[in-house]
Amino acid sequence: MNKKLETAEMDELLRAILSLETVEEAYEFFEDLCTVNEMVAMKQRFEVAKMLREERTYQDIADETGASSATISRVNRALNYGNDGYDMVLKRISK
């Protein structure tokens, strides 16, 4: 975990996110918190992660999502060397 991110304020933000109970509440909160571009970027990275776990090619992912090769590489690095957050969430939502 990134120690620079671990602050009382970040803990409070993450607890706020965990308090959301429905997709509609999540939309309301994140639309207030983030810009449209930030939301699109997060959605894109999540789609890239799913496709990488499906062993899709970089070209296929780029064509389907519009993600740059740098974004795909960054997500791939997180999948292979990160904190396993993507995999944890992907397993949970596949149930």
TrEMBL record:
Task: Specify the domain of life of the species encoding this protein.
Answer: Bacteria
Q: Which GO terms describe its molecular function?
A: DNA-binding transcription factor activity; sequence-specific DNA binding
Q: Which NCBIfam families match?
A: yecD_yerC
Listed name of the protein: Trp operon repressor family
Q: Which organism is it from?
A: Pseudobutyrivibrio xylanivorans DSM 14809
Lineage, highest ranks first: Bacteria, Bacillati, Bacillota, Clostridia, Lachnospirales
